[in-house]
Design brief:
Elements lengths: L7 H7 L1 H14 L6 H14 L2 E5 L2 H11 L7 E5 L5 H8 L3 E5 L21 E7 L8 H11 L2 E5 L7 E2 L2 E2 L6 E5 L13 E5 L2 H11 L20 H12 L1 H19 L5 E2 L15 E5 L7 H10 L25 H7 L2 E4 L7 H16 L2
Parallel strand pairs: 2-3, 2-4, 4-5, 5-8
Antiparallel strand pairs: 1-9, 6-7, 8-9, 10-11, 11-12
Length: about 375
């Protein structure tokens, strides 16, 4: 049995008529830059999240623009996890600020809210939380911490658009939030794309300026900005995909529950917690933890699965604070432990139950041969 890690082809074929029509509409209009579909998608996303939205070229641009729009710069400190994709820390460094790394929790891989207070200094200006693998941390608790210390909260929601934290949607709680529409994301386009969200009028206006060369009207330059626009074709694709998004989230949660049922009997695997609807995940990844007794055999397990037509992946095999360019002498015991034990299995809305059963069976078989 050949199983895809993420099956974009199956999703496309299921929605081919609508997506083809949307793309052809852009081609017919030949309005490729900031066409009507961009504004339409922004309005759809605003109604969905409850936050003002501006589309940008990708998730990394979104983070950088968000940081600049709230005034993060040289000498500032931003508290953030090391267990994340590089864009989180990369963009902090690009502003001239310093990332201050906080440890995570092993049950959901998100930053540990209880570890933040001890990291706050006179230079701390913000917390950048990462809603990792499709699940948010306790964003309302983080917002309270920020308010108590005069800090700003940024949500890196690249993997969590559509997720919930205490009943509120990702991209609706933080002072400013960003997401990515990279094709493999829960809501993905057919190229690069991203967005910035905020209900703070000043921050949103700043982000809108910076993303458009710092212009307010043609040739009226008010800021040093960048060129970051959501492509019209990508917006057209996102409009169609957004129509089926809630249905796909439900399917992802059903698949996660089915994985849990199939893997529960193994005492050498810790499955990710399947949260309730108030704290729902959109399952950007389905990531398990291997027991310490078998973590040294992780590569063997991956190769075994591969030989049986089952792809797997490591998110993330290295902590950013241990890389040369982002090096820091901090100690993050949970992050270090998790990094050695994570293993991500296929996850997408179009996985069938028999495929999940096959993946689970082969995973347990691989472990039995360690």
């Amino acid at each position: 049995m050949k199983i895809n890690f993420i099956d974009l082809k199956k999703q496309y074929l299921k929605n081919k008529k609508a997506i083809d029509s949307a793309i052809n509409g852009v081609l017919d209009d030949t309005n490729f830059i900031l066409g009507n579909q961009v504004k339409e998608f922004e309005e759809i996303s605003e109604e969905y999240t409850g936050s003002k939205c501006i589309g940008v070229a990708n998730g990394t641009d979104a983070l950088f623009i968000a940081l600049k729009s709230i005034g993060i710069g040289q000498g500032d400190e931003v508290i953030t996890p090391s267990f994340t994709w590089v864009s989180t820390v990369e963009t902090i460094k690009m502003t001239g600020a310093r990332p201050v790394y906080v440890d995570i929790k092993s049950n959901d891989f998100n930053l540990d809210e209880e570890k933040i207070n001890s990291l706050i200094t006179s230079k701390t200006k913000a917390i950048m939380s990462v809603s990792i693998f499709g699940r948010c941390p306790n964003l309302k608790k983080l917002k309270t911490i920020c308010e108590e210390h005069g800090l700003l909260l940024i949500e890196d929601a690249a993997q969590s658009y559509g997720a919930k934290s205490d009943g509120s949607l990702s991209c609706s709680i933080a002072d400013i939030s960003t997401t990515s529409f990279f094709p493999a994301k829960p809501l993905g386009c057919y190229g690069d794309g991203g967005a910035i969200y905020s209900n703070n009028k000043k921050f949103f206006e700043e982000a809108s300026l910076i993303a458009r060369h710092g212009q307010s009207g043609r040739y009226n330059y008010l800021r040093v900005g960048v060129n970051s626009r959501l492509d019209t074709i990508q917006a057209a694709v996102l409009i169609e995909k957004h129509k089926i998004f809630e249905e796909e989230i439900k399917k992802r949660n059903s698949i996660a529950k089915f994985y849990e049922e199939n893997l529960l009997e193994s005492n050498l695997i810790t499955t990710p917690e399947v949260p309730n609807e108030e704290n729902r995940s959109v399952w950007a990844q389905y990531t398990i933890l291997l027991d310490n007794d078998i973590k040294e055999n992780r590569q063997f397990i991956m190769e075994y699965l591969k030989s049986e037509g089952i792809p797997s992946a490591l998110y993330y095999p290295v902590l950013l604070h241990k890389t040369n360019i982002y090096k820091d002498e901090c100690t993050l015991p949970v992050s270090e432990d998790v990094c050695d034990r994570v293993l991500s299995l296929p996850m997408h809305p179009y996985l069938e139950k028999d495929e999940v059963e096959e993946i689970s069976y082969l995973l347990k078989k691989a472990i039995s041969e360690v």
